[in-house]
Amino acid sequence: MPPVTLPTLSIGRFQLDFPVVQAALSGYSDAAMRVIARRLAASYSVCEVLLDQFVLAVKDRARNKHFMHVADEEHPVGGQLMGANPDDFGPAAQRLVRAGFDVVDINFGCPVKKVLGRCRGGFHLSQPDVALEIVRRVRDAVPESVPVTVKMRRGIDDSAESRDRFYTIFDGAWAAGVAAITVHGRTVLQRYDGPSNWQFLAEVKRHAGSRTVLGSGDLFTAQDCLDMIRETGVDGVTVARGAIGNPWIFRECRALAAGEPLPEPPSLFEQREVIAEHYRLAEELYGPNRCGQQMRKFGIKYSQLHPQAQAVREAFVRIHRSEQIHAVLAQWYAEDLPGRRPASVADPALDCSNA
What we know:
This protein is an alpha/beta fold. The chain has helices at residues 31-39, 52-57, 65-68, 86-99, 113-117, 128-141, 160-175, 198-208, 222-232, 248-257, 268-286, 291-302, 309-317, 324-332; strands spanning 10-11, 14-15, 20-22, 45-46, 50-51, 77-82, 103-108, 148-153, 180-184, 212-216, 236-239. The chain has 2 domains: 10-257, TIM Barrel, CATH 3.20.20; 268-332. The strands form 2 sheets. Strands 3, 4, 5, 6, 7, 8, 9, 10 and 11 form a 9-stranded parallel β-sheet that branches. It has a two-stranded antiparallel ribbon with strand order 1-2.
């Protein structure tokens, strides 16, 4: 197969070497997950969404290290903020920059009911004046060298009024100085139901011209990622749910883009090595007494690549202590069998993954 010509993806001063990146994933995209993704060929990643008020209030203590920890090897990396009050966004953005994040991303996309009820996330798509005030506060608060980006859904719903508000925010954000905007092809009311509207992404990219637009929604395979770029013309794509438990998706994207055959799924020894390293990174981040629960939910996602997926999933479900991770690896990953491809439909119940 011939190589695929892909766009050059730049986020402000950062020129990335590949236009497929890891999205922010609430409860998942901590430094451990991001480092694994980067080692397996993600060109950029964004931390799990952080509430602006939490960022301002959290104490600099060891037990809080995981919230804003940035590893040396993951630059450039984005920090994502969500909140209700424009006054809190600027100071919170400054703290993210001090913590080491290279880009500040603003979440106007989260569709979770409790988030909307507190006037956060996707709720801002209903109030362009407030949304744009937030963008201006963040842009004014951080150095010019720090790119500011925005994550949006295509609107609250499919009404003409919602569409008009989307474009008011979209155009106003560029005028306020954002470096890139990620657009998810579902509405807020859709949450994760129904297909992502890639035709809307194509329309948005045509409207944006040379400005950097990333697409999001229904990216569960490497081919999905390349298809979205080809069909919509976006400058890059953000992989969310499709990367949980399958960080190899980024390596697969690069192989297909280079004209190579799709790599075989990782063997059980490859999986074991990555899961064990993910555990080690998590233990450094959370400590040995607290990383077990975090790795339990990741293990459940990693199990989808195992040929005995259901049995391995059940083994990870039973984990309560960190040392039990090693017992699962010793029992279920002792023989180097071929892996399998994950199911194309991922768990829809991920708060604020915007996947």
